[in-house]
Specification:
Blueprint (H helix, E strand, L loop, with lengths): L1 H7 L9 E6 L6 E3 L14 E2 L7 H7 L4 E6 L5 E9 L4 E8 H4 L1 H47 L9 H4 L4 H81 L6 H31 L8 E4 H18 L3 E6 L6 E4 L1 H17 L5 E8 L5 E7 L20 H5 L1
Helix pairs in contact: 4-6, 6-7, 7-9, 8-9
Length: 403
């Protein structure tokens, strides 16, 4: 009875735990010797062969060994078992419980831990997302504001709530708003200045256009005046030249008188050339000038100028000297009238501004097949600081005024 009570007592063994006993009653295996909890009709009718994997710990207990571990019970379920040998009965005894039931607390604890971990992970992830969102969202808004401002929207600012925040993002937002306001003010100021400058330039352009038109009208009036005056001067000059030509053919004139008539002729022709030059100057100013090149006798031109200017030099008691090299070409090709005018102007100025001494004109052949013409006088000269005024129109140097 005590043995039966011990075998059938299942306190603490749960729903699937039980005590199983077996003995070797034959040579073909071990036989269950006590009622089974889950199969009451199996005692003394269930024999487990030696080569079977079912209840292998129980066969080991019958052989006199003891231990604990996993096994397969008579139902084919995996169980956790403890077994030992009972010498007085020569039985093997095994206490077992289903592995699923034995490990259920562990599985439950594992599942609970996993659940807690998942909940914690979800909470941490959600919190991290909210924290990251609270950081990245202001940065995104600030980035959008910077991008819009760089595209020319000068009125873009970040929200006041963000700018008033005391964290780094708030400091950055406040700095952006301040910088954007300063840049917008500078841009507005520059745009206003550009508008003012544009208006001033338009006014200047209008004034310059009016001045240009006025200058064109004045230049046209000057051209008309010069043309009219040239015509008025040519009329008496042509009469003088005509009478001079008649006198030049008069056979009763002596040599000296004939020379004087020749001077009158050349001076008149020069004066006529000056009148033509006045018209030519008008053409130069209007961009219509041209060179009238021709081949002429250079020594003859120089002698004619010398004879013409000798009268003026004699009147001022000055010596006039013309010199040119023997290898000077006799015939040259250029604008004869302009060359004559230049030489007469230079020699005339030399005579005009020289009180005593004389004026020398030297003509030599240049290395590049041109001519070198030098006009030298013994006058007061031009101060070095006044040289830059030499070729300015209608300007007379202080040295010239003193002389």
């Amino acid at each position: 009875n005590d043995l039966y009570r011990v075998i059938t007592e299942r306190v603490g063994l749960g729903d699937t735990g039980e005590t199983v006993t077996a003995a070797r009653l034959g040579d073909d295996g071990v036989t269950i010797t006590a009622p089974l909890r889950l199969s009451l009709d199996l005692p003394f009718s269930l024999t487990i062969p030696d080569d079977s994997t079912v209840l292998s710990p129980l066969r080991a207990a019958v052989r006199g060994t003891e231990g604990a571990g996993e096994a397969i019970d008579y139902r084919g379920e995996r169980v956790l078992a403890v077994w030992r040998y009972v010498p007085s009965l020569r039985w093997g005894l095994m206490v077992k419980v289903d592995e699923a039931e034995a490990l259920a607390p562990v599985v439950f604890q594992r599942n609970a831990i996993l659940t807690v971990l998942l909940i914690t992970l979800a909470a941490v992830s959600g919190g991290a997302f909210l924290v990251a969102r609270s950081i990245t969202q202001p940065i995104e808004r600030l980035t959008q504001a910077v991008r819009a401002f760089s595209e020319g929207r000068m009125d873009v600012r970040v929200g006041a709530s963000m700018a008033k925040s005391r964290d780094e993002i708030g400091v950055l937002a406040a700095g952006f708003n301040q910088m954007a306001s300063q840049i917008a003010d500078q841009v507005n100021f520059l745009e206003q200045r550009v508008r003012e400058r544009t208006q001033q330039l338009a006014e200047y352009a209008e004034q310059m256009d009016n001045a240009r038109k006025e200058a064109e009208r004045a230049n046209q009036a000057k051209t008309i005046f010069l043309t009219s005056m040239s015509h008025e001067l040519r009329t008496p000059l042509n009469a003088i030249l005509g009478f001079a030509q008649v006198m030049e053919r008069d056979k009763t004139l002596n040599a000296k008188q004939h020379d004087h008539v020749g001077i009158i002729m050349r001076s008149g022709e020069h004066l006529l050339g000056l009148i033509n030059d006045v018209l030519e100057m008008s053409k130069i100013e209007s961009g219509q000038t041209s060179l009238n090149e021709s081949v002429f006798d250079l020594p003859e031109l120089l002698r004619g100028i010398e004879e013409m200017m000798q009268v003026r030099a004699n009147a001022r008691q000055l010596q006039l000297l013309f010199e040119w090299d023997d290898d000077l070409p006799r015939y040259i090709r250029t604008d004869e009238g302009k060359l004559r005018q230049i030489l007469i102007n230079l020699v005339g100025n030399g005579i005009k501004f020289t009180k005593e001494g004389g004026v020398a004109v030297r003509v030599a052949k240049a290395p590049d097949q041109g001519l070198i013409v030098e006009v030298e006088d013994t006058g007061h000269g031009i101060a070095p600081e006044e040289m830059d005024k030499l070729f300015k129109p209608f300007i007379q140097t202080e040295s010239g005024r003193q002389n």
